[in-house]
Amino acid sequence: MNRLLHSFLVTTSIAAAQMLDPALLTKPLGDSWPTYSGDYSGKRYSSLTQLNQSNVKNLTLAWTNRVAAGAGGGRGGSQTIIGGEGTGDLAAGGGTSIKASILQVDGILYVSTPDNAWAVDARDGHELWHYFWRTRGGTHIGNRGLGMYGNWLFMETPDNYLVSLDARTGKERWHKVIASFEQQYFSTAAPIVIGNHVLVGTGDDLDEPGVLQSFDPENGSVQWKYYSTPMKAGDPGLNTWKNLDAAQHGGGQMWVPGSYDPETHLYIIGTGNPTPAYTSQMRGDGDNLYTCSIVAINVDTGKMAWYYQTSPHDTHDWDSAQTPVLVDGEFNGKPRKMVLTASRNGYYFTLDRLTGERLTSSKYSDSANWAKGFGPTGAPVRDPKKDFDIGGALVSPANGGITNWPPPAYSPDTGLFYVPQNDSYAMYYLTETDPRGAMGLGGKEEQGLGSTGGYLTAIDYKTGKIAWRHKYPGTGGGGSSGLLTTAGKLLFGGDLGGNIVAYDPADGKILWHSHIGQVSNAPETYMLDGHQYLLVAAGDAMFSFMLY
Amino acid sequence: MKANIFVAIAAGMLIAGARITAQAPAQTPAQNQGGRGANKQAAAPARGGGGGGAAYPPRPPGDPAAVARGKAIYDINCALCHGEDARGGDNGPNLIRGEVVMNDQNSELIGPVLQNGRVAEGMPKFNFTSAQISDIATFLHSFRAGGYDVSRNRPPSIVVGDAKAGATYFNSKCGSCHSATGDMKGIATRIADARTLQQRWLMPTGGGGRGGAPQGAPTTVTVTLASGQKIEGRLGRIDDFTVTVNADDGTSRTIRRDGNTPKVEIHDPLQPHKDMLKIYTDKDIHDVTAYMVTLK
Questions:
Q1: Helix (H, G, I), strand (E, B) or coil at A216
Q2: CB distance B148–A441 less than 8 Å?
Q3: I want to staple A344 with a disulfide (CB 3.0 to 4.6 A). Which of A251, A318, A367, B74 is the partner?
Q4: To the nearest whole angstrom, how far is the Cα of B77 from the nearest Cα of chain A?
Q5: Which chain A positions have a beta carbon within 8 Å of B89's beta carbon?
Q6: Is residue A1, in this structure, part of any structural domain at all?
Q7: CB contact under 8 A, A449 and B277
Q8: Cβ–Cβ below 8 Å for A114 and B161
Q9: Does B284 map to a domain?
Q10: Residue A512, φ and ψ in degrees, nearest 5
Q11: pLDDT value for A19
Q12: Does the residue A25 lie in any domain?
């Protein structure tokens, strides 16, 4: 009896310890990593200083471990829990790559890849449980991570389900449909938990409207839906489309999580490209609002407060879904609340966070050649000659963009915004001369010409000018990993050569590195047992570094 | 969307999708289903949605007789507004990408729209029998929803430039390294496809064997050690921390780098091609290609 009681008490206390305290999410990023960007601001700036410029050379590998995806996953005696609406015959496995933010709450890591979630002990990397979702299909391009609310975890699946798991056991609580699989949606985003809202974005490459939904964390009911394109007569922005049908099939997918301003209750997120992506005539000549924009959505109502369009009438499938970074600082001598973003199209923007007013914008790519300059809003003006051509149009960037989903970072110590940059080129050939009936990504073929350089780039938010730029050595370029900054005056990122590297955020000087393979997510840091850790993933492996 | 990488689950389905497509009966709509997957075979890093066939398996083929009956009814009643190919017209939207058709399984969503019309939007009611509705649905479902369709209005050639202007440009800008009677002689015979030829002259990859392109010179590197010793060879790999030099005898040597020590000089034979990317106009490119295709 005594033993039973004792065991019960121990169990209870273990379970309680794992619960996520929502207050964590509004504190400066430090001990934990409880949401996609670590905190709501998207800065990926940790307040931790134990690890700093003076001792980063002493970083030591604490542990490494690989995850095994699929029904046969589960390592070190961990049990795989199987869910899903599919038949199981589509689960091919292989090619597992962690492109997710990994949550760290009370010494447990929560990791995900498409259809898979794991709980891993942050102290030694051993697996606690593995959940596998049998898929119906959908584009398995990546999974950006899990969301957490109390003891509950939330995962999006490529076949468009929101799955809620019990973080303590990995057992499924429920799953709900996010969007229609038949309409070829696919869901990659990390759910963002704000109060009692679970914000869920999705993706689609076939002309379906972009939708952000708020789910109830307890029962999975939908609280509100925000569409990024006009969906009915009278909706604002409709006059920027040829007609309502074009707007209703206009894309604008919110497939990368946004950032949140607790003061204004605004969830600030980048929207995707308009569709059909390339042959755009059926969209009309207008700007195609609110695609390729930064939009601010009231988290209580789902209503849009403001927008700023970074690519009016995009024609290259360059979404503006990069994580917006919320910064309080000085601009022109006055304190301002701002949003910073470097867009896939090669342009950088500083916006006012309360109104969406553009404060400055600039071209941060050397190669981007698709625009004729800046328009009245400070956004680039597209050159239609660079849309495509029967004989081929030479365009920078290639479809992957100057930057993409890998998260940028910001350091208040330097006032600099850091972004991975890839100056790529491609030829865009028009392959359908009749735009009527154009759909999705069709109508063109893109053939790459490589890159003239891959960089880690630091931008001064006050001017939009490049403060410093580190060019990765070699003859080509490529996209490098997401980034992390810390109050220990460190900037971490993966390079093009398979190294995790620590830089001086002031000037890009290299301070430390370790060759672990191509970094596939963004590095993170947290405190455990009085030690600061650095956690990073390369493919299916996690590497945990620490100071002894 | 969306980044560069793809995962094997979808790649596996891509193969399956391509196979199913290949087996589809050769009827009008089903022939249109090239799809990204079928186009580029399973190796393409497809994103699925745009390809239509990759991550979203096609519907099982409908009864060909029902498709034919449905097409006949559609042509008479629907094609005027929605287009013969159901991709939309002046007065009616594209049906293939429409929510009703995509979510419909067995005419349970299409049927009510036909029976009730969408009067406010200008679509009348139709008094079809349930059998006719089923045939129309079967016909609409025989199209696969996807962006890529190789059968549609494809331009016959990418050669749109002026060969004479291209010859002038080639001689003035490319002539210091290349010659029409030397390395470029017969290039259009070796690379018959004009688009491949254009991509190759813009950025030769050095992979000489396959397309019959000239063997590109390798990137070489010279590493000067503190002792003054120079190590030269082909560039294996380089990052901020090491450089690997490959010798002609198959051996390689990796040298540690620390900032600018030792001195590393990379000789990239493609650098002039990269530099030109900022300089060409599209007309220059088209003209040079029009000239290159004459070098048979």
A1: coil
A2: yes
A3: A318
A4: 19
A5: 436
A6: no
A7: yes
A8: no
A9: yes
A10: -165, 155
A11: 72
A12: no
Phi (first) and psi of residue B40, to 5 degrees: -105, 10
Can you tell me the ipTM of this complex? 0.92
Q: How many other C-beta atoms lie within 10 A of the C-beta of residue A76?
A: 11
Which residue would you say has higher pLDDT here, B4 or A198?
A: A198
Q: Which tokens sit at B60?
A: 């099982």
- Residue B101: strand, helix, or coil: helix
Which amino acid is located at B12 in the chain? G
Quick one: what percent of chain B has pLDDT higher than 70? Answer: 78
Length of chain A equals 548
Do B103 and B123 lie in a common domain? yes
Domain containing residue B121: CATH number: 1.10.760.10
B57 falls within a domain: yes
Structure tokens given for A516: 């672990």
- Chain B CB contacts of A234 under 8 Å are none
Which residues in chain B touch residue A499, judged by CB atoms under 8 angstroms apart? 239-241
- Asked if B286 lies within 8 A of A139 by C-beta distance, the reply is no
Residue A240 has what DSSP assignment?
A: G
Q: A251: which chain B residues are within 8 Å (Cβ-Cβ)?
A: none
DSSP assignments along A444-486, one per residue: EEEEEEEEEEEEEEEEETTT--EEEEEEPSSS-------EEEE
Regarding whether B212 and B225 lie in a shared domain, the answer is: no
Q: What is the mean pLDDT of residues B110-130?
A: 95
Please list, residue by residue across B80-95, b when 16 or more beta carbons sit within 10 angstroms of its beta carbon and e when fewer do: ebbbebbbbbeebbbb
Instruction: Compute the distance between CA of residue A297 and CA of residue A213 in angstroms, rounded to an integer.
Output: 11
Which tens digits make up the pLDDT trace of A295-318? 999 999 999 999 999 999 999 999
Structural domain including A205 reads 32-546
Cβ pair B47:A141 closer than 8 A: yes
Is residue A21, in this structure, part of any structural domain at all?
no
CATH number, domain containing residue B237: 2.30.30
Looking at CA atoms only, how far is residue A328 from chain B in angstroms? 30
* Closest alpha carbon to A53 in A502, A539, A517: A502
Q: Which domain holds residue B168?
A: 163-216+272-292
Please check whether residue B146 lies inside any domain of the structure: no
CB of A295 within 8 A of CB of A268? yes
User: If you search the block for the tokens 């002609």, which residue do you land on?
Assistant: B248
Q: Which of A95, A205, A432 sits opposite B1 (nearest CB)?
A: A205
- Name the residue facing A495 among B145, B160, B239 (closest C-beta): B239
Q: Which residues in chain B are contacts of A140 at CB distance < 8 A?
A: 6-7, 9-10, 48, 55
If you ran DSSP here, which 8-state letter would residue A274 be given? B
Residue B205 is predicted with a pLDDT of: 72
Mean pLDDT (chain A, rounded): 93
- pLDDT exceeds 90 at position A442: no
| Whether residue B224 is found in the same domain as residue B195 | no
Distance from the Cα of A161 to chain B's closest Cα (Å) equals 15
- For residue A360, list its beta bridge partners: A350
Does residue B182 sit in the same domain as residue B247? no
- Rounded to the nearest 10°, the torsion over CA A172, A106, A217, B56 is -50
**Residues of chain B with C-beta less than 8 angstroms from the C-beta of A96:** 7
Closest chain B residue to the Cα of A499, Cα to Cα: B239
Strand partners for A509 = none
Q: Do A391 and B3 touch (CB under 8 A)?
A: no
What number is the average pLDDT over the span A347-366? 98
Q: Same structural domain for residues B65 and B46?
A: yes
Q: What phi, psi does B8 have (nearest 5°)?
A: -65, -25
Q: Give yes or no: residues B28 and B44 share one domain.
A: yes
Note whether B13 and B136 are same-domain residues: yes
